[in-house]
Write a structure and sequence with these properties.
The chain has about 110 residues and is an all-alpha fold. The chain has one domain. Helices cover about 80% and strands about 0% of the residues. The chain contains 4 helices and no strands. The longest helix has about 35 residues. It is elongated and about 55 Å long. The mean pLDDT is about 90.
């Protein structure tokens, strides 16, 4: 389990924090630079209560696989979206590895 905790603490936790910051900046950028589109997207927000979080979760899922029209010619949005996509991939693969390592180590104990 020590390997899984090390992977989580030194790799995945910083990735998660970076993802949180990138998502916040991406949504804030949309709200400030493209307010009409932000409203049409349902006003996704990290701090907007249940409806804002729900909308953000739906938007994030779609943004992972397709680039919104408003972001296609915006370098800042594209950079943040690239980080979100790569960070999400690293996070998910890393968590699978952590679960596998923990399972393997627990299996050997018992």
């Amino acid at each position: 389990m020590q390997t899984a905790f090390t992977l989580f603490g030194f790799v995945l936790l910083p990735v998660f924090i970076g993802l949180f910051i990138a998502i916040h900046k991406f949504v804030k950028h949309e709200a400030e630079q493209y307010p009409t589109q932000w409203e049409n997207d349902g006003k996704p927000s990290l701090t907007g209560g249940v409806s804002g979080h729900f909308t953000l979760n739906l938007r994030l899922l779609s943004w992972l696989f397709s680039t919104p029209e408003w972001a296609r010619k915006d370098d800042t949005a594209l950079r943040l979206l690239r980080y979100i996509r790569i960070g999400s991939l690293v996070w998910n693969i890393g968590m699978l590895i952590c679960f596998y390592l923990t399972y393997s180590e627990l299996k050997h104990l018992g």
